[in-house]
Write a structure and sequence with these properties.
There is one protein chain. The protein is an alpha/beta fold. It has one domain (3-228): Rossmann fold. The protein is built from seven helices and eleven strands. The chain has helices at residues 28-40, 70-82, 110-113, 119-131, 167-172, 183-190, 219-229; strands spanning 3-7, 13-15, 21-23, 44-49, 90-91, 102-105, 135-138, 161-162, 193-194, 204-207, 210-213. The N and C termini lie close together (9 Å). It comes from Nocardia huaxiensis. Pfam families: DJ-1_PfpI. GO terms for molecular function: glyoxalase III activity; transferase activity. Residues 29-228 form the DJ-1/PfpI domain. One of its GO terms (biological process) is methylglyoxal catabolic process to D-lactate via S-lactoyl-glutathione.
Length: 230
Amino acid sequence: MAKILFVMTGVDYWTLADGSKHPTGYWAEEFAAPYEAFTGAGHEIVVATPGGVTPAVDRASLAADVNGGPEGAEKIAALLKRATELASPIRLEDVALGDYDAVYYPGGHGPMEDLAVNADSGRLLTDALASGKPLGVVCHAPAALLATTGADGSSPFAGYRITGFTNAEETQAGWADKAKWLLQDRLEALGADFRVGEPWAPHIEVDRNLYTGQNPASSAPLATELLKAL
């Protein structure tokens, strides 16, 4: 049995370009699909957040229209209730990478707010990449890679083939013209080899021990690849 660390946003808002705060958090499917896959395979999950705060779910991600209808919405809500790990996260600041076999970052707009500038997360990502352990990051969670930039402006993720929520998807979702910055733009500026798939369709990229998914639909396929690596 493997022990997998889920690093999650600790905020329930995303600050827009006009200074207003849009309610958000983590995206339900991006937690639920890998959680179900990993625990179903007998693996242990530990959740970590900045300060050890209880992660907040983006309420929009619980809606029927993004979960295949009312039955899907009920299923995902029930799974979140069963996931007792969400109620007792550890402090990201106290994480010891050696305790875990893999690291996974679910998305949602929350990571754009806190993990993108969190030094503890940046160090963890840098160490996880160097360790060779499977490292999975999906949708908006690659924003956390921005915190790996060193004093010289370089990142260990430069040159890696990755994906994440695209400019096209942010535009279609109605947030591109409201955001302070766009994830794809920042990751390309970081030096990552950013790959774009069809909007909203499953798309993953695997480069060495780094596993990235483009959007919520990519979280289940990403979990499948991480299970193979484990």
